[in-house]
């Protein structure tokens, strides 16, 4: 089973990012930060993350987007502000199609959730600092097996599962 930690929009918090990182570092294949960390690219809490720039990140070393493979899936990671994710998920879905990605991870809206658009699974982990539409400060863990079962579980900042956000689907 593959597992990936996904967080976003920590907006300057260092201790909380570090705590979550330490909680999962030996239990996940990758750690992703979808932008708006407001930390320097090489600042200690950000070490070990696949990370992108958000609209509040000004370190030029952050890329606007990343794509990479984990097992049999290709991930596309971006903050979302350049793809107008607060309006529609189609632009980000089209960009993922261009790079051949199955899984899209983004932030920007601070709204935790999972959506399927065409053949893409889109994950917004929410915000660990300033959540919108819910009170819980959240991050996500995506996991999947070789048979095509895909799971996304959300957790609050203390590591407790937010069960009503959980999602299970089949990969196509």
Automatic annotation (TrEMBL):
Domain of life, source organism: Bacteria
Record's keyword terms, sorted: Metal-binding
Enzyme Commission number(s) from the entry: 3.1.4.-
Keyword Cell wall biogenesis/degradation: no
CDD domains: MPP_YfcE (cd00841)
Domain Calcineurin-like phosphoesterase: 3-146
GO molecular function: hydrolase activity; metal ion binding
Cited Gene3D superfamilies: 3.60.21.10
Entry-linked Pfam families: Metallophos_2
Names of the cofactor(s): a divalent metal cation
Family listed: Belongs to the metallophosphoesterase superfamily. YfcE family.
NCBIfam families: yfcE (TIGR00040)
Name used for this protein in its record: Phosphoesterase
């Amino acid at each position: 089973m593959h597992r990936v930690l996904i967080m976003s929009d920590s907006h300057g918090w260092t201790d909380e990012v570090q705590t979550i990182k330490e909680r999962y570092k030996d239990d996940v294949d990758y750690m992703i930060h979808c932008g708006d960390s407001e930390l320097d690219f090489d600042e200690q809490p950000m070490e070990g993350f696949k990370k992108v720039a958000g609209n509040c990140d000004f370190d030029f070393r952050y890329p606007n987007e990343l794509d990479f493979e984990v097992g049999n899936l290709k991930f596309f990671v971006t903050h979302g502000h350049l793809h107008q994710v607060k309006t529609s998920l189609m632009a980000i879905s089209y960009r993922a199609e261009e790079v051949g990605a199955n899984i899209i991870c983004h932030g920007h809206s601070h709204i935790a959730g999972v959506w399927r658009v065409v053949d893409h699974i889109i994950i917004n982990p929410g915000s660990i600092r300033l959540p919108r539409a819910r009170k819980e400060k959240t991050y996500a863990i995506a996991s999947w097996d070789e048979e095509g079962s895909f799971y996304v579980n959300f957790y609050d900042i203390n590591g407790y599962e937010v069960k009503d956000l959980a999602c299970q689907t089949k990969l196509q």
